[in-house]
Amino acid sequence: MSTQLSHLGNDEADATARLMSASERLMAEAARLFPLAAAQSERTIWLEAMIDEVPDYLYFKDLSCRFVVANRAITADNGRESLVGLSDFELHPEATARHFFNTEQEIIRTGRPMLDMEDQIRDAAGNLKWMLSSKLPVRNGNGEVIGIVGTARDITERKLAESLHRGQADLLKMIALGEPLTDVFSALILLIEAHVPDVTGSILRLSPDGRHIVNGAAPNLDAGYCRLIEGLEIGPTVGSCGTAMWRGEPVIVADIETDPLWADFRHLALGIASRACWSWPIRSYQGRVLGTFALYSRETGEPSAECTKLVGMATHIAGIAIERKEAEDSIQYMAHHDTLTGLPNRSMLDERVASAIEAADDRGGSMTLAFIDLDNFKLVNDSLGHHAGDELLKIVAARMQGCIRASDSIVRLGGDEFVILISGAMRRGEAVEDRLRSVREAVAEPVEIDGRSFQVTCSMGVAVYPEHGRNVSELLARADMAMYRAKEIGRDAVQVFTFELADRAHEKLERQEELRRALAQTEFFLQYQPQMDLVTGRIFAVEALIRWRHPERGIVSPGEFIPLAEETGLIGPIGDWTLRTACRQNKAWQLSGLPPIVVSVNVSARQFQERDWVERVAAALEESGLEARYLELELTESLIMEDVQQAVETMHRLEQLGVHLAIDDFGTGYSSLSSLKRFPVGRLKIDRSFVQDLPGDSDDAAIATAVISLGHLLQLRVIAEGVETREQLDFLREAGCDEIQGYHISRPIDAMALQALLCLSEC
Ligand SMILES: Nc1nc2c(ncn2[C@@H]2O[C@H](COP(=O)(O)O[C@H]3[C@@H](O)[C@H](n4cnc5c(=O)[nH]c(N)nc54)O[C@@H]3COP(=O)(O)O)[C@@H](O)[C@H]2O)c(=O)[nH]1
Fold it and tell me: SUPFAM superfamilies, per this entry (predicted)?
């Protein structure tokens, strides 16, 4: 056979040359093996015999595309004795044959080979096969094309593996893109059905309670059958799937008709002409059973090893899909719910308020937001610990949820803050306060945590759409504002928002800003009010009293700004400033040669409760160089009574520093005599209110006398404040009071004036 390839391109010439040289080598090999077969006819016989041994298809066709030579592989696969003289039209369906014919005619017409073509054919046994084929022109000695030579190789397995890979990749992509689980399941089942002949797949899931069958997908299984098995309780003999889920292991039923596992359900399966059902559990990464992947077959029997391997892949992918969906669902849940109480959270509130507003607009109606804050929750947290605080929140949340109507929602904003959304208008004659009463009452029911029983109340602020705000943040801010007002008026109350409230809050905010500025720009200063020993007549101490030199309002008294400073937390830095300034001033008086006196500084509750308060007192003393015995801290009765245990501890630490402690405003609080005994204080200060009507008011006279006696019984010194008259002084001296403070001696004065006063009395 001679070859003329000069007219072909390089690649094509190479391929053709390879094929031709392979034939030549084949012939040379035949000549080497059979040197004695010299005659051409004999050589042809040997050559054909050799060609028949090749497992790939090898053939030669003439110009009309009829087989001239065809090896055994192609002949047998076509179910023939010989293909010589036949065309593809006699072997394949019309469309396939036409495709082959057109390709081959093109090769003959152009003289160009066609290499590595992939074609799908059906063999004589009816099996679909994928073939990789190359076809090349064959020329005679004159270079004329006289036919084609073709080779083809069965690549069905490789194609199946490729399609399986592609299918898996597509499935993983679907999972990654979060496509619906039923779509992923259906694609998975179709993939397996495409690779396992004559089976119908199904995926079932296990219900969240771990007890019931839930349909996943079964694109080719009878829908009526699927409906009938939905919700069945899994168990030791519940067909293949119910049993596989129950056992957590594959259940291969080769014959549904006889297998006892199907006793109660075989009529269902036989109704859809299924004779075998093989079910494998789908598991989570940690091994939890999530569902089953099952294959139904019309024939009795067991799955092949290949099928079992494929299903292994399928259950793995189904497990990933379900776990991902569960993770997605739980992320969604967490994004919209509070983990502690299980109530919806702020993001859910936004959505619900938006749709409640929409509904109100549609009906021309309204909706209401109630902002709820537990009263003194911090106290529970601080005194009983965070565990108790968390428990309380859970209990209260459940109680509130139990009180609201199905159409309303309750949300935890965070901490001890909740919001109730009341959709729609109130009923005729019903006020919002009535609607919220049951919630307040439920909250106020006694709570028992860790063996301790106590009660909490709550304060509520209400804002109504559309009167009080147009959107969720406006409504929430206004309900919050109203809630603060409810706290201000004594807690355990409901306050509906009003625009006057908003003005007040705005004003407050402005004053708060002014306070900040005052601190930054040192607009504060101290005045000092002398305290006199009634026996010696000596000024032995002064009380430091803060003042604010406001740029527009002039001197502002502490009674006006201390409560706001306490509320906003600014009392911390303001109190520090007072303490440091008073210590520095006292030291300065000492350094100026005056006899040492004690400076008394007021301490607010919030300051006193700060964790590092004692350290801050120590720092003020150290910084000023003042000895601790020349500093007295005035604590009010009510401050101490907020948390007696804690207060006594802090007082002892202060006592260890060496500072004096006094109880201010004595008589206005509720200190019990037993607790008073435990306070390491040196002085009681009779409140001004009991002094101002002395000596005329017999009640006040009795109280003042009693406080003096009580103080002395406890070995405390007693000072009376607000002494304005000689008569008051005389009465107090007569009653045994040790010391006095008041306008009668001196109004609060600045440091220079006090220095002069001290100098006058001492020098
Ligand atoms: N936490 C802090 N509280 C402080 C500080 N400085 C003052 N205060 C507290 O503010 C309240 C008002 O104080 P103020 O306007 O300074 O009034 C004090 C005296 O001026 C007033 N006083 C004294 N003598 C008389 C008198 O004869 N008549 C009369 N009508 N008033 C008099 O009494 C106030 C002192 O009270 P007290 O502290 O209870 O001794 C007041 O509660 C201050 O405590 C501060 O720096 N921090």
Answer: EAL domain-like, GAF domain-like, Nucleotide cyclase, PYP-like sensor domain (PAS domain)
Query: Ligand 1 pocket: which residues have CB below 6 Å?
Result: 529, 543, 545-546, 557-559, 562, 575, 578, 602, 604, 664-665, 688, 721-724, 741-743, 748
Taking the model in full, what pTM does it have? Answer: 0.59
| Closest protein CA for atom 38 of ligand 1 | 602
Whole-number pLDDT of residue 579: 96
φ, ψ dihedrals at 591, nearest 5°: -65, -25
Q: With contact defined as beta carbons under 8 Å apart, do 755 and 589 qualify?
A: yes
Nearest CA to ligand 1 atom 2: 602
Closest CA to 274 of 247, 292, 254: 254
pLDDT bin (cut points 50, 70, 90) of residue 678 is: confident
Q: Report whether 165 contacts 174 (CB < 8 A).
A: no
Give the DSSP H or E segment for 752. Answer: helix 751-762
Within 13 Å and on the Cβ side, how many CA atoms surround 688? 9
Residue-level pLDDT at 3: 35
Judge whether 199 and 297 are in contact, CB under 8 Å. Answer: yes
State which H helix or E strand residue 130 sits in. strand 128-139
Around 375, how many Cα atoms within 13 Å sit in the side-chain half-sphere?
Answer: 23
Domains of the chain by range and CATH? 12-154 (3.30.450.20), 159-334 (3.30.450.40), 346-499 (3.30.70.270), 517-762 (3.20.20.450)
Distance CA 470, CA 478 (A): 11
Q: Is the peptide bond before 466 cis (omega within 30 degrees of 0)?
A: yes
Residues 6+ apart with CB under 8 A from 218: 189, 200, 201, 202, 203, 226
How far, in Å, is the centroid of ligand 1 from the Cα of 213?
76
Which residue's CA is minimally distant from atom 30 of ligand 1? Answer: 722
CA distance 578 to 575: 5
Residue with CA closest to ligand 1 atom 9: 558
Give the bridge partners for 121, in sequence order: 129
What's the first-to-final CA gap in the chain, in angstroms? 141
Contact 698, 716 (CB under 8 A): no
Give, for ligand 1, the residue of 566, 602, 727 to mutate: max count of ligand atoms closer than 8 Å to Cβ: 602
Cβ pair 207, 191 in contact under 8 A: no
Residue nearest to atom 6 of ligand 1 (CA): 545
> How many Å apart are CA 745 and CA 763, to the nearest integer?
18
Do the Cβ atoms of 88 and 66 come closer than 8 Å? no
Q: What is the ipTM of this complex?
A: 0.94
**Structure confidence at residue 5 as a pLDDT band (50, 70, 90):** very low
Write the pLDDT tens digit of every residue in 626-638.
Answer: 999 999 999 987 7
Which atom of ligand 1 is least distant from the CA of 558? Answer: 10
Edge-to-edge strands of the sheet including 276-283? 213-217, 199-206, 289-297, 276-283, 251-253
Quick one: average pLDDT of 456-475?
A: 94
Task: State how far the Cα of 98 lies from the Cα of 92, in Å rounded to an integer.
Answer: 9
| Strand 458-465 with 452-454, pairing | unpaired
Pocket test for ligand 1, best of 526, 528, 545, 555 (most atoms within 8 A of CB): 545
DSSP characters over 17-71? HHHHHHHHHHHHHHHHH-TT--SHHHHHHHHHHHHHH-SSEEEEEETTSBEEEE-
Atom of ligand 1 nearest to the CA of 603: 1
- Helices (H) and strands (E) counted in the chain, each on its own, are 26, 26
367-374 and 417-422 strand pairing: antiparallel
What atom in ligand 1 is closest to the CA of residue 543? 40
Neighbours of 158 (CB within 10 A): 13
The pair of three-digit structure tokens given for residue 176, joined into one six-digit string: 């990654």
Closest CA to 107 of 64, 151, 137: 137
CA distance 293 to 315: 6
